[in-house]
Specification:
Blueprint: E1 29-30, H1 43-50, H2 72-84, H3 111-114, H4 117-120, H5 165-187, H6 192-220, H7 222-231, E2 244-245, H8 246-249, E3 263-265, E4 272-274, H9 317-320, H10 324-327, H11 338-348, H12 354-360, H13 368-371, H14 384-396, H15 403-418, H16 424-427, H17 445-449, H18 475-482
Parallel strand pairs: 1-2
Antiparallel strand pairs: 3-4
Helix pairs in contact: 1-11, 2-5, 5-6, 6-7, 6-15, 6-18, 7-15
The structure holds protoporphyrin IX containing FE (HEM).
Length: about 475
């Protein structure tokens, strides 16, 4: 496929809402701490921290790797971000926040995968088997890519799912998971008319489970997660419909930008490829770029996966120099740095300082020695996004979020599942994953994206470890729905 070389085709940071992925009316954002004053950061600090050569640029220091976080986790973190928040306003805006629209619903409901469903977006689905999502063929005629139109543009529920190869390959793995569920449910005797909805619900519940029981413990710590799941969130308002707080979308949940590596190996013995330009998306993915998820996620008995970078306030070169395919043409070259954009967003939405949030939730604020903003001539408090990164570095050695970051991220993710009337925690709190897992009673992201080769042959609900002892069927997943 020939790509146009005359200039950026899309601005994926600023792209205006398009009919394909803008739900009618759009959602609004909310605030966790409306009573706290905005920090109002000097634009000189934004640029000193965020631009190429600034404090966030990993080129200015030596960085190690995380000891515990596999490189696949931030990719999944980004997948979750795309499922729940999309603010398409220009990065330079200083609008009234009531004008901001979240074009995703604040639910872990995989709308980036399913779009508006087979009726509204039939081009995402197989014509031969309409309960299944469509896969595209790559240069070796294997169904290992997203479906694409004749210009190579992905047919996908949200264009951001094709921004780089790692995320588009994660989407491919999720499509496969859905299609496997359709096959299983058919074997279980679910009527054809109910197959799509049943498979969608089963996948969505497994995904929600992975977010709450695998991703969240790795991101905010196991103890915090268990407390939150048992006691419920304290700060996220119980609004109906639930909305994403700006402190989450424009600061805390952008922590993952610091975990991204400069290079990735996609398969055993394969070359190290830069995120950009090597793994840039928006074009067909050749067979030699197909991701083997065991390289990026821990699998019992498998080789150690590549590691994420620590959360430490620094970003890799690929994100400090975003390609024009992502940013579009820029008036200010510094807006090509994702760190500058993250800081500008927090300013534009008038977020409070990290120290102010820490005081409000009874956490010990970072000291000036820990934030080191004086090195950049700034005597004030710390922008929330940068604070969350430095807090993770100072309090958790970069392995997971510290108290402020963990509170915001954990509370929002638990709240949006708890307040979704279709989630497993609302419909059936006693539900447990029924897809095969490698370890008994522990269903992981790797089980979802890279199932054990034997697992595909096992009755669903059985782990390779317990084959022969279980009799559960997938229909247990969907009994509530299918009656
Ligand atoms: C390869 C990696 C990634 C790239 C290239 C990327 C790129 C971007 C870009 C260009 C934006 C828009 C910036 C703006 O104008 O405000 C953005 C926003 C965002 N990113 Fe990332 N990102 C990556 C990974 C992640 C990860 C790992 C996470 C979280 C774990 C994350 C969470 C977010 C969030 C929450 C937003 C705001 C989305 C919205 O509300 O519209 N990103 N990212």
């Amino acid at each position: 496929m020939n790509r146009a070389t005359s200039g950026p085709a899309r601005d994926h940071c600023l792209a205006p809402g398009r009919a394909v992925d803008a739900p009618p009316g759009g959602g609004r954002y909310t605030r966790l701490f409306p009573h706290l004053p905005p920090l109002g950061v000097d634009s000189r600090l934004v640029h000193a921290l965020g631009r190429a050569g600034g404090a966030c640029d990993s080129a200015t220091c030596r960085r190690g790797e995380s000891r515990t976080v596999a490189a696949g986790w931030p990719v999944f973190g980004q997948y979750v971000a795309h499922d729940i928040t999309a603010d398409r306003s220009p990065v330079t805006h200083h609008d009234d926040e009531s004008l901001l629209r979240n074009v995703r619903s604040a639910r872990l409901n995989l709308e980036c995968l399913y779009g508006d469903g087979p009726v509204a977006q039939p081009y995402l689905y197989s014509r031969r088997d309409p309960a299944k999502l469509l896969l595209g063929r790559n240069d070796r005629s294997r169904h290992d890519d997203l479906p694409r139109n004749q210009e190579g543009t992905a047919l996908v529920g949200d264009p951001r799912q094709d921004v780089h190869v790692l995320i588009s390959q994660m989407q491919v793995a999720m499509i496969r998971a859905h299609n496997r569920l359709v096959d299983r449910l058919r074997i279980d005797g679910i009527p054809e008319a109910q197959l799509f909805a049943a498979a969608r619900q089963a996948l969505t519940w497994h995904y929600q489970w992975v977010v709450l029981h695998d991703f969240l413990p790795a991101t905010i710590g196991r103890e915090r997660t268990e407390r939150l799941l048992a006691e419920g969130p304290r700060y996220v308002p119980r609004d109906q419909p639930v909305a994403i707080p700006l402190e989450f979308a424009d600061a805390a949940y952008r922590y993952g930008h610091s975990q991204i590596r400069d290079t990735y190996r996609l398969r055993p013995g394969g070359p190290s490829l830069s995120l950009f330009p090597d793994l840039l998306g928006f074009r067909p993915v050749p067979a030699d770029r197909v991701v083997d998820w065991r390289e990026l996620l821990p699998v019992p008995g498998g080789p150690p996966p590549q590691r994420a970078r620590p959360i430490d306030g620094r970003l890799p070169a690929s994100l400090v120099h975003l390609p024009p395919d992502i940013t579009g043409a820029l008036d200010d070259a510094d807006h090509g740095s994702l760190a500058v954009r993250d800081l500008l967003r927090g300013n534009a939405t008038a977020l409070p300082s990290g120290e102010a949030v820490a005081r409000a939730v009874g956490a010990q604020p970072l000291t000036a020695e820990e934030t080191r903003l004086a090195d950049h001539g700034w005597a004030g408090e710390t922008p929330l996004w940068y604070y969350v990164l430095k807090e993770a570095e100072a309090r958790e050695d970069g392995e997971r979020l510290g108290p402020v970051g963990a509170l915001i991220v954990g509370e929002v993710l638990v709240r949006i599942v708890d307040d979704d009337p279709g989630s497993h925690r609302c419909v059936d709190p006693s539900w447990r994953p029924t897809l095969p897992s490698r370890e008994p009673d522990r269903f992981t992201l790797a089980d979802l994206l890279a199932p054990h080769p034997v697992a595909g042959c096992l009755p669903v609900g059985m782990s390779p470890a317990t084959a022969g002892t279980s009799t559960s069927r997938l229909t247990q997943d969907v009994g509530h729905r299918t009656g």
